[in-house]
Write a sequence for this structure.
């Protein structure tokens, strides 16, 4: 091969790599992540949800809780007044004695009791199924905490420190798991899901429940899953396997 | 008392009482400010017990406010003319108790300064939002009602406005009860019977509050209470206490019949100290059975025994609400039926609650506010019936 051809080949190779590097994130975003443009409203075509596989969740592992606290600037909970957006619950079957471990967070109900009872409409559900609290209209009455069947909400009992720019918090307001809406809107996944995967458990799966081709939908179609307090018909966005 | 010295003495008594009420109210405002500054971390409330002692005071005052209208309703709606002279006091007391209750409720909010948000953003699926309209509406109706009762030219309005007030307050107390009745997921609440239960409670608590206010103003004026009216109020209060007991019994019996509620009922009625003691001794014993004995036994027919009975009914109300509101929250939510659960966030564990001083002060501030509104109202307006042609209180036995 003459030197000119070699340089040409190297140049073309480098250009292809550069083009690939530039296009790849776009392809990634387009194919999997569906990032929203700033200001674009949430789409009702999507319903975000999670599948917790209790057969993979390890007792004593707290990585999802730690990741949530880090992501949202929540101090480690040591008192009954501290916020907990996600918690690990250790369960024991009363008849068989079988032990189960599972994270519990806001279940992002399709029929959320917290939204029904909120006097000002501060508790609301987005078109894509994410249940949130508007920090500007929450008056701190705590009626949503009385109404939540899953004990998923926390009241900010004292002045906050170490706030994250993406996660506004404020004393006197109620808050709960946002499904990491700030990450999801940019095409990301919730921190608890990432932490669980990083720990090698992959017990929490995140995705679009409305898309029959999504991994979460396919898993729900193939294994038996349940919703917490299914008797209440709140149609939770979070489902559990192995309960 | 010497007639010439009477106005001066009355003025002195008024200002002394007003100052005492204002002092308690000032302490409450200070406590509320302290709570707002530091957050609810300075209260006994937590993420499990989200409504504490202030709600016990607030709900007592709001429920009693509705019932305080009994006497006016009996006159305007049911046409019992004997009650008519007492109607203005009845309406004033409704306004006073409601104002006191709402004051506590608002100052206990996480963001009380956002009251304007609550007044401008309504979620009509929320019974709380409906109640805000109902509470404010009752103020408006009571103002008109009082005007119709006191202004001779508006007298024809008294009956229709009285009827509207009666209907409004029945709906209002249905709404207050439904705050709890609509909580689908809590073992302690989630029942349609809570609305009529609250109406029965309001009849008893409101009439008890009315009697205490009437006795207080009579004593302040150095006048005796009408003996014939006393007999009727005693009988009525007794019937209301029985009605309240009936609905409480129905609520618990329904729960006891359902296997899924057995653990909660065992907790509230037997095992979960201090709630069973508060329920049986506080509400059933001291708050209901002892007042019934005082009201129906001929040995205790006097004004004083009636006042003791009324005060015990009010005390029982606090015991009932403490068990109902706090006891209902400390019992853990059943999220995983068939499993024993434990976590760092109250799962499967009975919670604890110890009221703090600021909460107590805020609550008593509601009572003080109600007292002040009634005291000032009764002085500024011709609320009280003209001196009764009466027998002294002691002789009324």
């Amino acid at each position: 091969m003459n030197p000119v051809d070699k340089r040409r080949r190297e140049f073309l190779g480098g250009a292809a790599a550069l083009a690939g590097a530039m296009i790849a994130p776009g392809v990634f975003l387009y194919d999997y992540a569906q990032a929203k443009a700033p200001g674009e409203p949430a789409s009702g075509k999507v319903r975000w949800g999670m599948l917790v596989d209790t057969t993979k969740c390890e007792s004593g592992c707290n990585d999802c809780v730690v990741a949530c606290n880090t992501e949202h600037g929540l101090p480690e909970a040591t008192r009954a007044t501290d916020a907990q957006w996600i918690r690990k619950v250790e369960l024991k079957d009363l008849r068989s004695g079988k032990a189960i471990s599972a994270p519990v967070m806001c279940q992002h109900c399709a029929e959320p009791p917290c939204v029904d009872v909120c006097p000002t409409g501060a508790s609301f559900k987005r078109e894509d199924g994410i249940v949130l609290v508007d920090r500007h209209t929450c008056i701190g009455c705590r009626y949503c905490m009385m109404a939540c069947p899953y004990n998923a909400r926390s009241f900010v009992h004292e002045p906050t420190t170490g706030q994250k720019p993406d996660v506004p918090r404020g004393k006197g307001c109620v808050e709960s798991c946002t499904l990491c809406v700030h990450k999801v809107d940019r095409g990301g996944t919730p921190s608890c899901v990432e932490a669980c995967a990083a720990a090698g458990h992959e017990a929490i799966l995140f995705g679009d429940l409305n898309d029959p081709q999504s991994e979460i939908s396919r898993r729900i179609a193939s294994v038996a899953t349940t919703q917490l307090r299914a008797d209440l018909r709140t149609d939770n966005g979070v489902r559990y396997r192995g309960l | 008392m010497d007639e010439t010295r009477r106005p001066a003495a009355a003025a002195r008594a008024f200002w002394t009482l007003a100052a005492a009420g204002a002092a308690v109210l000032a302490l409450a405002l200070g406590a509320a400010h302290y709570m707002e500054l530091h957050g609810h971390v300075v209260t006994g409330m937590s993420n499990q017990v989200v409504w504490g002692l202030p709600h016990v005071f607030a709900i007592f005052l709001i429920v009693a406010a509705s019932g305080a209208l009994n006497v006016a309703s009996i006159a305007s709606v049911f046409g019992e003319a004997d009650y008519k002279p007492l109607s203005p006091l009845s309406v004033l007391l409704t306004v006073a108790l409601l104002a006191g209750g709402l004051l506590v409720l608002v100052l206990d909010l996480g963001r009380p300064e956002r009251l304007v948000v609550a007044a401008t953003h309504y979620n009509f699926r929320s019974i709380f939002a409906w109640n805000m309209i109902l509470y404010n509406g009752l103020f408006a109706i009571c103002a008109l009602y009082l005007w119709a009762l006191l202004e001779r030219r508006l007298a024809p309005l008294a009956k229709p406005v009285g009827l509207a007030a009666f209907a409004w307050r029945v709906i209002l107390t249905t709404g207050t009860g439904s705050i709890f009745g609509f909580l689908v997921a809590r073992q302690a609440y989630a029942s349609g019977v809570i609305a009529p239960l609250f109406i029965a409670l309001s009849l008893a608590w409101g009439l008890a509050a009315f009697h205490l206010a009437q006795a207080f103003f009579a004593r302040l004026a150095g006048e005796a209470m009408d003996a014939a009216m006393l007999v009727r109020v005693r009988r009525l209060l007794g019937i209301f206490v029985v009605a309240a007991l009936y609905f409480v019994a129905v609520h618990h019996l329904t729960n006891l019949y359902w296997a899924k509620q057995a653990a909660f009922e065992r907790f509230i009625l037997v095992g979960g100290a201090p709630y069973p003691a508060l329920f049986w001794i506080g509400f059933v014993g001291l708050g209901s059975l002892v007042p019934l004995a005082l009201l129906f036994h001929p040995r205790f027919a006097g004004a004083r025994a009636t006042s003791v009975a009324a005060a015990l009914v009010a005390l029982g109300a606090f015991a009932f609400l403490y068990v109902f509101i706090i006891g209902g929250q400390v019992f853990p939510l059943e999220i995983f039926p068939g499993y024993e659960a434990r976590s760092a966030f109250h799962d499967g564990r009975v919670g604890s609650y110890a009221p703090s001083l600021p909460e107590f002060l805020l609550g008593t501030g509601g009572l003080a506010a109600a007292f002040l509104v009634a005291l000032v109202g009764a002085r500024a307006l011709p609320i009280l019936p003209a001196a009764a042609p009466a027998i002294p209180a002691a002789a009324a036995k």
Remarks:
- Chain A has seven helices and ten strands.
- The beta strands of chain A are 48-53, 86-93, 99-105, 123-125, 131-133, 154-155, 174-175, 204-208, 225-226, 238-241.
